[in-house]
Amino acid sequence: MTELAAMEFHPQPQAGEARPWAFPAPTRGALDNGLTVLRCHRPGQQVVAVEVLLDAPLEAEPAGFDGVATIMARAFSEGTDKHSAEEFAAELERCGATLDAHADHPGVRLSLEVPASRLAKALGLLADALRAPAFADSEVERLVRNRLDEIPHELANPSRRAAKELSKELFPAGSRMSRPRQGTEETVEKIDAAAVRAFYDRHVRPATATAVVVGDLTGIDLDALLGETLGAWTGSSAEPRPAPPVTADDTGRVVIVDRPGAVQTQLLIGRVGPDRHDRVWPAQVLGTYCLGGTLTSRLDRVLREEKGYTYGVRAFGQVLRSAPDGTGASMLAISGSVDTPNTGPALDDLWKVLRTLAEGGLTDAERDVAVQNLVGVAPLKYETAAAVASTLADQVEQHLPDDYQATLYQQLAATGTVEATAAVVNAFPVDRLVTVLVGDAAQIKEPVEALNIGEVTVVSAE
């Protein structure tokens, strides 16, 4: 038998020295109409991203018309005083642009992406949509029908159903945060073009809006371009709308949304915590990542790798509304799904993870891996202009300084294990968590009651 020749391997490539990186700093200015403008020149980013933030929060929606902000946001791209809905879509397509819009608790946001060479045309279309939206009866009626068609599908989705129930449980009944962001069947079906126009007239104006422009601006006279497009948008001056403080009840309890025959249980465990203005935020981000931010986190290590209950469980913090005066808040939550027979054992082990964390704390190794992942991935996370523009818009929306994101990464790198442990333990106290389970109540109610993690209530999935 012929002896095989020894294999020769190519030398393993070695990592180069990391180059210094910091989150891009924007330049701030304003147009004559009062529109605030943040710009950020990103050489090489030939797809320019534009974000426009409107001070039209969900809590400003008229009573009984939840969802009108969403319908208005969607209607911005459904025609103007110059183009019908079909013509407007064709004009966007001709310049290779995409325009999206959505409404959330802080306000309405429009997002435009376009090749730098077509920026002038696309900005003109965006300006027309903001300046003179058509809000045609037929288009609004179609958007309302589409939204009504979406609602049953959302209710059938276990994760969406769990989120709806958690908001209802946490926030007072009179709070807009207790109700679905995009409205219910009862409120959406009342929306018409007149309601959309009235909401627009009351809340949409350049004086309380902000535009963020990010991309390669080489050879572009952005001042002149903005003046000719968004600068032509007019409106009355007004002070930003004051927001009521966020209040919530995180008394430990369990709500089961009954889905007879469900083979899995969707779990969502949450409470309300501080927003990004709180000095604990960096440590909370780091500690929460160690708890459930990745496949190597504590929750996944136990519930996925050791016990095989789930494909994955995540812990996260999501800003609901941010304010420098302490009236803002974030949602702190743990989310995942487990097979029905193991719902009780999985919750038991999840609570054990939280108790063990409180008793023994995080390890230095866990902290180091989290910092490497959160800080080290930043240059890749912000490779596109859209990612940078979105984060700058978040900072504006949350009343944060323009250098906030850059400072956050410095703070994460400087946060120690003890601080991260204290923050995550305070974020997820075992006796102050509202647990929502979407699953078969006949199979999971008794095992969950035996855990003594709070009073158990069963509600219909309808």
Textual characterization of the structure:
- The mean pLDDT is 95.
- A 6-stranded mixed β-sheet has the order 1-2-6-3-5-4, with helices on both faces. The chain has a 6-stranded mixed β-sheet with strand order 9-10-8-11-7-12, with helices on both faces.
- It is built from 17 helices and 12 strands.
- The protein is globular, with a radius of gyration of 25 Å.
- The protein is α+β, with helices and mostly antiparallel strands and 462 residues long.
Features:
alpha+beta; 462 residues
Kindly report the average pLDDT value.
95
Provide the β-strand percentage band.
15-25%
Sheet of most strands = 6 strands, mixed
H/I helix tally: 17
Radius of gyration: 25 Å
Oligomer: single chain
State the helical fraction. Answer: 40-55%
Low-confidence stretches: none
Element order: H for helix, E for strand: EEEHHEEHHHHHEHEEHHEEHHHHHHEHE
Structural class: alpha+beta
Instruction: Report how far the terminal alpha carbons are from each other.
Output: 73 Å
User: Outline, from the CA principal axes?
Assistant: globular
Q: What's the β-strand tally?
A: 12
Largest sheet, order of strands side by side? 1-2-6-3-5-4
